[in-house]
Design brief:
Elements lengths: L2 E13 L4 E3 L2 E3 L4 E2 L7 H13 L5 H4 L12 H14 L2 E11 L9 H12 L6 E6 L5 H4 L3 E12 L3
Parallel strand pairs: 5-6
Antiparallel strand pairs: 1-4, 1-7, 2-3, 5-7
Length: 161
């Protein structure tokens, strides 16, 4: 197949005493996200979307939270390694569409920088990266501020036959 679609999802609980990093951006906040790595929910969902598009499993399979090598790791490093797998199979990114679901903090001021960080990591034009931020209108764990989630869709195209 020359065109492949991937869907990624991730969710992390909020916690005190950690930085809030989303899309490679350190966002001023009184809480961060709980996780083995830096818990970048957007980048983790993007990695899953890229891996899923090519039926390569998921982020936990390639970067398990049981491996001490990934403790506290910058998720942008995981993204670059994931993208190397995509490139090794001769695919390129046609577009990325992402939604971050967080009750707080407001993410409007950070979406452009997130898109820039992702585009740079994947060596693509930032016009190929769409990032939206939504709230959960006070509903469930996300709405209570106990978690942040991200949904990502990617479209890939084969570069060589």
């Amino acid at each position: 197949m020359s065109i492949r679609l991937g869907i990624g999802y991730d969710l992390h609980r909020t916690t005190q005493g950690r930085p809030l990093i989303i899309g490679g951006v350190n966002i001023p906040s009184d809480f961060g996200l709980l996780g083995h790595s830096d818990a970048d929910v957007l980048v983790h969902a993007l990695c899953d979307a890229l891996l899923g598009a090519l039926a390569l499993g998921d982020i936990g399979m390639h970067f398990p939270d049981t491996d001490p090598a990934f403790k506290g790791i910058d998720s942008m490093h995981l993204l670059k390694n994931t993208f190397k797998m995509v490139k090794d199979l001769h695919y390129e990114v046609l577009n990325i569409d992402a939604i971050i679901v967080a009750e707080r903090p407001k993410l409007m001021l950070y979406k452009k920088q997130m898109a820039d960080n992702i585009a740079k990591a994947l060596n693509i034009n930032d016009s190929l990266v769409s990032i939206k931020a939504k709230t959960n209108e006070g509903v469930d764990a996300i709405g209570r501020g106990d978690a942040i989630a991200a949904h990502v869709v990617v479209l890939l195209q084969k570069t060589k036959p």
